Write a sequence for this structure.
């Protein structure tokens, strides 16, 4: 099973043509050449990939994030999602 | 008054996507109309003139094509071809006075259909984030300017089936009156979607598919004409201020010499002899030409009962006896009706006719309507003509009439 960072890296290389050797935990999305519209789309694709929903207010904060920040956010949201689905309805 | 030169042509059309194949197809009288199926909740097929278009040939791999509607893809491809054809180079000196004038009737038919289906049938909370930018009417014009870095006027006209004759005419005025020196002008449409077919069918205005011979479905000026056939594509011209085009040694196809714009102001669909003839008369005056100077008319010629009879009467009203001596053809019989892209495609065809001294035919005209009694160039095209000036007519729902005249340089 690929890790969260591998799955995000895969989106960046396949859909945004980011060279694989530039992907590093401390790289910001801006430094990888993604503009503000790319970031909005990336969020949408990450939501689909991980079956999560990034809160509306979480959007802008992502722009200056490093890849590691995004991995952490995704892992947190995935965990919340998993816990929510375990709750009795 | 500044004069306007046409220095580049680009076309993406059902009858070909380069000038040479377009003119060859036209002269043979070979329609690109065929049976066409769309995807939707019920099986659907009708006659249409689709474009064979491979985006990979026009866009780099990193281009995110899902954000570019088919209409924008056509527009960008046709503009790139026109700019290449013109040989113009945009520099820091000229780009601020170079603009875009574009026409589309519907715009992003595919993008709207996908979005409505997603919101109404699937998940209203999973709309693609850049949907607004994909479906907005001025997306094609915006992308063309970005592609060529043009800082002048950037305008989008939407007046149904005359949209891109208007966009070319208004671009001509931008140059003529000194607001710009270069304009990329044209139009595009990509309406071959399930939804839009259903909407057009509901109006009882589409020709029913001729099952025996689908390519003969569109029959302008014929007694048995039965309506229009939808097409898709784009066409673009590069317009330049005459003296600067001459200075840079540009190949000049023709002078865009006149533009007439009028409205029927009587009914939202019913065409009017007065409105149409007024636009032709205005274009002749603008070009300082008389009916005797026009040697070919590319008719609006939709193959609806009303249009073809009305247009014939309007031509006769302006041209008098001369009307019977001028070849008049409807090339929609071959490339279908491109709606907002029609005016541009037909103006490019008129320019090619002038440039190559040929007259394209009207296909599928076997038994003529007694009300339509002009020389419609039946069957095959004519070569070795001596054309001095040509007229291209575009009329529309909403009543907007636009007529363009090109003169041999």
């Amino acid at each position: 099973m690929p890790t969260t960072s591998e799955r995000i890296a895969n989106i960046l290389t396949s859909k945004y043509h980011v060279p694989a050797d530039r992907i590093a935990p401390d790289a910001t999305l801006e430094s990888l050449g993604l503009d503000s519209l790319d970031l909005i789309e990336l969020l949408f694709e990450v939501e689909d990939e991980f079956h999560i929903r990034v809160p509306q207010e979480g959007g802008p904060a992502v722009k200056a994030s490093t890849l590691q920040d995004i991995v952490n956010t995704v892992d947190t949201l995935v965990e919340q999602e998993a816990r929510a689905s375990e709750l009795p309805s | 008054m500044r004069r306007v030169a046409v220095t580049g042509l680009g076309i993406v059309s059902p009858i070909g996507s380069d000038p040479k194949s377009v003119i060859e197809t036209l002269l043979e009288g070979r329609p690109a109309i065929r049976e066409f199926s769309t995807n939707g909740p019920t099986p659907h097929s009708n006659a249409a003139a689709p474009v064979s278009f491979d985006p990979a040939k026009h866009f780099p791999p990193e281009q995110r094509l899902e954000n570019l509607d088919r209409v924008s893809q056509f527009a960008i491809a046709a503009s790139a071809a026109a700019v290449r054809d013109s040989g113009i180079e945009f520099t820091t000196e000229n780009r601020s006075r170079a603009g875009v004038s574009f026409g589309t009737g519907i715009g992003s038919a595919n993008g709207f259909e996908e979005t409505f289906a997603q919101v109404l049938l699937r998940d209203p909370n999973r709309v693609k984030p850049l949907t607004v930018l994909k479906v907005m009417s001025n997306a094609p014009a915006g992308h063309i300017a970005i592609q060529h870095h043009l800082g002048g006027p950037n305008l989008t006209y939407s007046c149904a089936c005359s949209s891109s004759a208007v966009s070319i005419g208004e671009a001509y005025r931008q140059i003529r009156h000194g607001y710009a020196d270069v304009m990329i002008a044209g139009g595009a449409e990509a309406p071959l979607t399930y939804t839009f077919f259903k909407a057009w069918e509901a109006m009882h205005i589409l020709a029913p598919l001729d099952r025996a011979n689908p390519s003969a479905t569109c029959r302008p000026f014929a007694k048995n004409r039965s309506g229009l056939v939808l097409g898709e594509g784009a066409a673009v011209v590069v317009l330049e201020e005459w003296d600067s085009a001459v200075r840079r040694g540009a190949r000049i196809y023709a002078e865009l010499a006149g533009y007439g714009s009028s409205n029927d102001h009587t009914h939202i669909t019913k065409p009017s002899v007065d409105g149409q003839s007024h636009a032709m008369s205005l274009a002749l005056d603008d070009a300082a030409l008389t009916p005797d100077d026009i040697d070919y008319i590319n008719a609006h010629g939709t193959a609806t009962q009303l249009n073809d009879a009305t247009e014939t009467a309007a031509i006769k009203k302006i041209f008098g006896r001369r009307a019977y001596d001028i070849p008049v053809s409807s090339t929609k019989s071959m490339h279908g009706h491109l709606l907002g892209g029609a005016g541009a495609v037909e103006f490019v065809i008129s320019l090619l006719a002038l440039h190559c001294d040929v007259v394209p035919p009207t296909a599928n005209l076997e038994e003529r309507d007694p009300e339509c009694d002009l020389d419609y160039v039946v069957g095959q095209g004519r070569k070795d003509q001596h054309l001095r000036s040509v007229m291209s007519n575009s009329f529309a729902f909403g009543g907007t009439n636009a007529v363009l005249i090109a003169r041999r340089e």
The longest helix of chain A spans residues 67-86. Chain A has one domain: 4-86. The radius of gyration of chain A is 13 Å. The interface with chain B takes residues 15-17, 37, 40-41, 43-44 of chain A (CB under 8 Å).
